[in-house]
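Running log. JK asked me to keep both predictions on one page so they can be read side by side. First protein, sequence followed by its tokens:
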Amino acid sequence: MSIHNDVSRPVKKRFRGVEMRKKSLLVIWFTILGLAVASVLMFAACGDSSDTTTSTAGTPSSTAPTTAEQVLIRVTTPVPGGDEFLTWAQEGMDRFNARTNGAYKMEIFPGGQLGPFPESLDAIRTGAIEAGLIPLAAFGGSVPEFGLVELPFLFNNGEAAAYAMPSIQTVWDELSQAQANQRTLGCVFVGTANFLSTKKPLKTLDDLKGVIIGVDAPPMVELVNAVGGSGLVVDFTEDYSSLQKGIIDAKTSAPQYIYIAKLYEVAKYYTVFHGISGMYSFTVNSDVYNKMPKDIQDALSEELSATAASISARYVTKLYELEPVLTDLGMEFYYLPAAERDKWKALAYPGTLDALAKLGDVGSRVKQITDEANAKYPYTQQ
């Protein structure tokens, strides 16, 4: 989950890599990771099919009349089709569609069908594509502030990250309007990246010395190097072979992706420490949004916000749901004790504070939001 320049590698890790293997792997991700977007993030197989996303929006329908000239809002995303993440997201969009009485139709086009992922932010900005479900941190090269959400040790755990998403959405909406001509109407927590190791459990700083750890983007390299390992950027599509051949000793990965990509076949030790979290966002071109009647704008904002909160909650629990599944497949989970995590954080977090400080008011606001979330949800060894 990179925060500088074009952080598209994490996206590839969870989604593109999954899609390359989806014929055999996409059985059920995040289907987000299926993240589950193919499952990061990849939980579809383990998801409860009877558990549907629930909207908290209060208004059941819009006053918009049914019209023959339906407005189509196309939503671009790098997440592959069939992913649980997209199923949940489309359910929320369908509720919006119903509230407009057919005047609007919001529809996801998965797997980059509408264009290359690196071009998606600009395509939404110009109106070439109406909306997106994208990881804005990947566009930190265009809007540096977007990268802040994936800084090392920014959040204590998934609970804190999910709690912070509505407040982050407010800040990101201001940024995206001012710098990318689009509204950010929902921010979704999509899991944390932890260490999956082939040779031994990584329990202490001593265990990390000299260990070659594959990561998805440069910020993760900084994290790994800070704690004594040797970080190496590896395309997530190469995770399985890189671990199998010993090119890397360990890899940053989310449990959803481990399951879908069958990484448990080549690595069995999983150290949970919630080092970096991931986020996707619902964005809509500002011109498209501004042309909507007020009640339609309200319906869209309400449904996407509610859907984001519901999906975030799913990803908080996905780690714990998948643990027994992966354990049965031979993996060993190790939750880093708080005292040991504090040692790791002491080495990497100063860089996070420096990055926040460099981005002025936005960095200060993000720090305030994360401090509140972390105070509410302290890290615990589970």
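And the second, directly underneath as requested:
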Amino acid sequence: MRIKAILICIVFLFVWTITIPGVKADVENGWYITGISYDGPIIAQTDTVFYVGVVEAKVKNGEMGELESATAVTDAQVTAVFTKGQEKIEATLIHEQNGEYKGVVALPTAGEWIVKIKAVRGHSEQRQVNPTDQKYEAEFTTPLKAKDPENNWMPVYLFILVFVVAGILMLMWVRKRNP
């Protein structure tokens, strides 16, 4: 009986994997920014290190379709523009490794900022820009929140407060047990 149940489960899983089609996304040939990450929390008036990934996508047939491969881009010029109202901070990123670019920014004020990342093919002075270079450009926009520098110590204060309260409660408990 037990073997029958196991065989039925295996057959069910086999049929299930055959009948459910794989998910396919249509992409175009060209560059894509995979995202942005930060070394730690973003605190106003403090240098923040951030990283951006850039890949080149190739499709199986033609200009658009199922993804065949994605390779790291190592020769891009990557810039980031941080905006909040009228404030604008620009940063140029440098290639670190395997399509990962590193930048540093110090946002002057706390609050909601918008960051726009742009990666373009590096052009020499002699080389003319041509229409196919649009494949070698990528943009990515996302919001981020910078914290006030003063709020950085709040978790430390709360941690100390918990220990002080625990110490007081322990003293009260010891005195109550030993009159």
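Observation for JK regarding the second prediction: The first strand starts at residue 26 and ends at 28.
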